[in-house]
Amino acid sequence: MEASRYRGATYNGAGRDSADVKPYLERQARDVIHAVRESLKGAIIEYVPRYSLLIEWSGDDLAYLVTLPDWEQEGIVLGPVAHGDTYEEAVSNAREALDSLVCSLRQHRQPLPEPRVVASV
To answer: What are phi and psi of 13, to 5 degrees?
Structure first.
């Protein structure tokens, strides 16, 4: 419904003046987000294996390079998958790369490589 003028205020068709619309919509958005979060409680979260990241400083590249040993062992990825000027940036970029790799293999219905497990001593 188009907005119309009613007694000097803009009417938005939802029974509210234009000044009231933004808080009303923000409240609705919060309610929807809360409802979605509540509906996800107890939902089964898809299992994602924990993979190792090998982070090394490269003097040639002047950056931290990240490789995925579990994925290299399977021949899926060869060489660095991410880099960063800082250690934290490299880890963040590697997480994005790993998410993309997992998503791609799942979309193509390919098995994920088994993560390397370090035995405790």
So the answer is: 85, -10
Both tokens of 98, joined, read: 């790993």
Q: How many other β-carbons are positioned within 10 Å of the β-carbon of residue 94?
A: 24
Residue 109 has what DSSP assignment?
T
Tokens for 45?
A: 């979260």
**What string of DSSP letters covers 52-86?**
--EEEEETTTTEEEEE-HHHHHTTS--S-SEEESS
Q: Please, are residues 42 and 27 in contact by the beta-carbon 8 Å criterion?
A: no
- The predicted model scores a pTM of 0.57
Separation of alpha carbons 85 and 63, rounded Å: 5
Tell me the three state secondary structure of residue 43.
coil
Q: What is the dihedral of CA 98, 104, 105, 108, to 10 degrees?
A: 180
Q: pLDDT tens-digit profile of 67-95?
A: 999 998 888 888 899 999 999 999 999 99
- Note the residue count of the chain: 121
